[in-house]
Amino acid sequence: MAIHKLWLSCMLCLCLTSLVSRVGGGYFSTQPSFTSFQTAASMPRSTSNRAVGRQIWCIGKPAAQDANLMRNVEYACGQAGVDCSAIQPGGACYRPNSVISHASYAMNLYYQKNGRNWWTCDFINTGILVFTDPSFGDCIYPSQ
Hints:
Layout lengths: L1 H23 L32 E4 L5 H14 L19 H15 L13 E4 L14
Antiparallel strand pairs: 1-2
Helix pairs in contact: 2-3
């Protein structure tokens, strides 16, 4: 029985070693898979706490309550002094006329203007950093 357990342990180690060498050797980098999604926490950091090497945007979490997202818009466009003219009627980012869309634009402007640190996108846990450009049509979300 002990020999059987030892054999299984050795086989498991060999399989894991093989998997790690494939990952390290770029196996997943050639596949559209899990590694194409990265969170801000997994990105390399500079000494200024900013993620480096990629463009990053701040948007509202889709599951956040509209009332909280509206407070973010009011704060960013009011007290924080971000130029939110693009989300006003007739602006390039007015449509879609939804709370999440307007909040995402305002939150991103605030994030970009205030140092691009992870905590400038928190907005009491209603913001999230993304690596996919949320811009669409004539609505351009600024990035670093």
